[in-house]
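ligand=2-acetamido-2-deoxy-beta-D-glucopyranose
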Amino acid sequence: MRPFLSCLFFSLTFALYFHGAYGAAVSFINETCTRIASNDPNVNFTFCVTTLQVAMKNNSLGSLEGLGLATMNLMKTNVSGIIFQIKNLLNQQGLEPYHRNCLLDCHDLYLDSVDALDVASQSFGSKRYFDANIQVSAVMDASTTCEDGFSEKEGEVSPLTSMNNVMFQLCAIALSITNMFE
Ligand SMILES: *[C@@H]1O[C@H](CO)[C@@H](O)[C@H](O)[C@H]1NC(C)=O
Ligand SMILES: *[C@@H]1O[C@H](CO)[C@@H](O)[C@H](O)[C@H]1NC(C)=O
Ligand SMILES: *[C@@H]1O[C@H](CO)[C@@H](O)[C@H](O)[C@H]1NC(C)=O
Ligand SMILES: *[C@@H]1O[C@H](CO)[C@@H](O)[C@H](O)[C@H]1NC(C)=O
């Protein structure tokens, strides 16, 4: 596990509530994504804003905590979609063995990520932010380990690059929200 963006957000107002304050929400999302993107070149600002806007719609608590939970719910849906795609790829005929093994590894990594995300949102919901951070970091590692498997053999092309990148960025966003509470 790598320490991720910790200590970045100490200056942020923790008790930031959104209760109907659309303008505040927009600038909060903007500010959060500006910080995340400037501290992690892997994170695309536009993607971050889009993601948090979607998560915001399912922010039943109307709080930063609710936004964190909604982001993790979004990630669960995304991971399920990735697993579905991997299964489809595995069903193709005549897969080269190395390629097939990479896909199988990715399948297992993302299956573990479903559990990790369940634990992450439970931990986050009960204010065990350090535990939540560990679980989300594990999912982030899954996305890079999956991608690395393909790149370890010359000539191998990962069919999952864009999905792994999306997952990596979603993890970065969830981690930075989590770190705001630590
Ligand atoms: C978000 O921030 C950028 C620069 O920090 C600014 O140019 C832009 O207008 C802001 N957008 C919104 C919707 O507040
Ligand atoms: C950032 O994400 C947006 C939408 O998700 C995409 O259109 C754009 O090409 C991305 N930019 C980079 C530099 O990847
Ligand atoms: C919205 O949030 C609720 C409660 O956190 C969750 O059970 C549900 O799966 C979420 N819906 C989506 C579409 O993420
Ligand atoms: C994951 O989320 C991204 C961005 O919200 C979306 O473009 C992509 O289709 C999703 N992938 C899957 C497999 O659900």
